[in-house]
Specification:
The chain is an alpha/beta fold. The chain is built from 15 helices and eight strands.
Length: 380
C-alpha cells in the first residue's frame, strides 16, 4: 500500500464524517466539543454523545479574533476563538456544549467570551497533581461534569456505560500509540507531517471504529515496511523529537521545515501526540480511574510538572532521538518558562542540545526559523 492510498482513504473518511455527524444529530445524539486533553471524553461517549476536539490550529480566523482578543495572545487561543466568531468550523457549529478547563489564564478568560456563542462548561482544573490535595478536588469536578453532560444529553451515565466508554477510548489510544510507535524503526516509516495529519484528522471522526481500524491497519503495514520509500527513508537524516505545545494541520510549519532541511520528526511529545498514549485503569471505580489518569497529564500548566521529564526520558530513548526541538507558541508563558528546565534536563541526561523555538501560526518568520533549524541539524 502506498502512502497516497492511505491519505486518500483518510480524506474519504473525513469527507463522509460531516454527513455521519449530521445523521447522528438527526437521530437525537448530542455532540460535545472539547478544548483540552484534561477533559475526559469518556463522559461524552458514556452518554452516547459524539466527542469532538476543537483546538484551533489554523491562522485564517486569527484576524477576526484579534478584533476582540489582544494581539499578543497565544495563537492557539486566538485561532480557537476566531473559528467561533466567524462560524467557520463545522465541529464548533455541531457542538451542543463546549467542555473547557482552566489550564491557563488566556484560555479561561477566552472561555468567558466564548460562552456568548455556545453553551460552555469550564472545569476547574487544579494547578498541581498532588494525590492528597488536588485529586479529591478534581474528582469532585468530574462528578459535576458528569451531571452537566447528563442534563445536556438527557442520558443517564451509568457505571457500565463509563466502563464501556473507557474500554473504547483505551482502544483508540492504543491504536494511536501503535501508529506513533512505528517511527521507533530506523529509518522511520512515516514522515512527521504525514503522521501528524493522520492523527489530527482521525481525532474528528464521529465513528471511533473507523479511526481505530485505519490506524491499526497503517501501523501493521508500516511496521512491516509496506509503505514503500519516503522522503525520510534514509539513515543519514537526524531524528528529531518535537516537544512543547500542541501542533496540528495548519500549525505544523516547524515540522515541515525540519523535513525540508533533511531531518525527520519521528515523535511528538505534546498533546497532539504521545501525551495521548495512556491507558485508563479498568479495574478501579471508573470515576476514580478517570480522575487519576487525566489529572496526571504532564502539561506545563502543572507545577511541578515532573511527568513531562519522565515522558521525555522514555521517548528520547525509545525513538533514538538525535535532537529535541522545544516548540512554544508566542505568549504561552508556562511552556516558555519551562523551556529552561527542559533544556537543562536533556543536556544533563543525554548530552543533547535542544533548540527552543518561539513562534506563532503565521508564515512571516519561516525563513528565520529555517536558518535556525538548518544550523541545529548541522550541529547534531
Amino acid at each position: 500500500m502506498k502512502q497516497n492510498d492511505i491519505m486518500n482513504r483518510l480524506q474519504q473518511m473525513t469527507d463522509e464524517n460531516i454527513a455521519d455527524i449530521e445523521r447522528a444529530k438527526s437521530e437525537g445524539r448530542s455532540v460535545i466539543g472539547f478544548y483540552c486533553l484534561y477533559s475526559p471524553t469518556e463522559m461524552a461517549v458514556a452518554a452516547d454523545a459524539i466527542p469532538l476536539t476543537l483546538c484551533g490550529t489554523r491562522n485564517d480566523p486569527i484576524a477576526a479574533a484579534e478584533e476582540i482578543l489582544p494581539r499578543n495572545l497565544c495563537p492557539l487561543i486566538k485561532s480557537s476563538f476566531g473559528f467561533a466568531v466567524t462560524d467557520t468550523c463545522p465541529f464548533f457549529r455541531f457542538s451542543d456544549i463546549i467542555i473547557a478547563d482552566t489550564t491557563c489564564d488566556g484560555k479561561k478568560k477566552m472561555f468567558e467570551l466564548l460562552s456568548r456563542y455556545k453553551a460552555t462548561h469550564v472545569l476547574q482544573l487544579p494547578q498541581n497533581q498532588d494525590p492528597e490535595t488536588a485529586l479529591p478536588l478534581w474528582r469532585a469536578e468530574l462528578a459535576r461534569y458528569k451531571t452537566i453532560i447528563e442534563e445536556k444529553t438527557g442520558v443517564a451515565i451509568t457505571q457500565d456505560g463509563l466502563r464501556g466508554a473507557i474500554h473504547l477510548m483505551n482502544r483508540e489510544r492504543a491504536a494511536r500509540k501503535a501508529l506513533m510507535d512505528v517511527n521507533q524503526l530506523n529509518p522511520a516509516p512515516l514522515p512527521g507531517s504525514r503522521l501528524l495529519e493522520i492523527l489530527f484528522k482521525v481525532g474528528f471522526l464521529a465513528d471511533k471504529e473507523k479511526g481505530i481500524s485505519l490506524m491499526e491497519e497503517i501501523a501493521a503495514i508500516a511496521g512491516n515496511g509496506g509503505l514503500g520509500a519516503t522522503t525520510i527513508d534514509r539513515k543519514s537524516g537526524k531524528r528529531i523529537l518535537l516537544t512543547g505545545v500542541p501542533v496540528g494541520v495548519g500549525s505544523d510549519k516547524v515540522v515541515k521545515i525540519v523535513e525540508q532541511a533533511g531531518g525527520a520528526v519521528v515523535a511528538f511529545e505534546n498533546c497532539s501526540g504521545y501525551k495521548q498514549a495512556f491507558t485508563v485503569d479498568t479495574e478501579k471505580d471508573p470515576m476514580d480511574a478517570l480522575a487519576e489518569q487525566y489529572l496526571s497529564t504532564p502539561c506545563s500548566v502543572m507545577s511541578p510538572n515532573t511527568g513531562r521529564f519522565d515522558l521525555l526520558k522514555e521517548m528520547i530513548r525509545d525513538f533514538s532521538a538525535d535532537g529535541v526541538i522545544d516548540l512554544t507558541w508566542q505568549a504561552c508563558h508556562t511552556y516558555n518558562v519551562e523551556a529552561f528546565s527542559i533544556d537543562e534536563f536533556i543536556r544533563d541526561t543525554f548530552g543533547l542540545p535542544t533548540l527552543h523555538l518561539e513562534t506563532d501560526y503565521a508564515e512571516s518568520d519561516t525563513e528565520q526559523l529555517r536558518v535556525r533549524i538548518e544550523a541545529y541539524l548541522e550541529m547534531l
